[in-house]
Amino acid sequence: MATKIEIKTDKASSMDQTKFPFSQAISYNGMIYCSGNIGIAPGTTTTIEGTVTDRTVQALKNLTAILEAGGSKLENVVKVNVFITTMNDFAAMNEGYLQFFKHPLPARTCVAVKELPLGTDVEIECIAHL
């Protein structure tokens, strides 16, 4: 029977679990399920300054570190969910996104939401195989 394994790394942002009760990722049955990541640099607790493109890049750097800590890599991502606070940021988010993902691109959903944690404008989660 497969066992859930928590993936943790200090090479990606990590929030106080008493306020944000979730794992960075869980590995289960050959897959890695990454929690949503926002543009927070490792070792800090605030979002980076700059543009939505900059925060997209930082979120994807965090996801890359988490996947590598779990024995996978960004190229193994099969599904991505992106949350942005306005569809006006769609092109800017894609600018950062395409710095990390190449063809064949993972399946993806992008939705606009009213609000995201810590007042950020983009959050990204993904699923990858080992």
TrEMBL record:
GO cellular component assignments: cytosol; mitochondrion
MF term (GO), any: deaminase activity
Family membership noted in the UniProt record: Belongs to the RutC family.
Protein name as it appears in the record: Uncharacterized protein
Organism expressing this protein natively: Venturia inaequalis (Apple scab fungus)
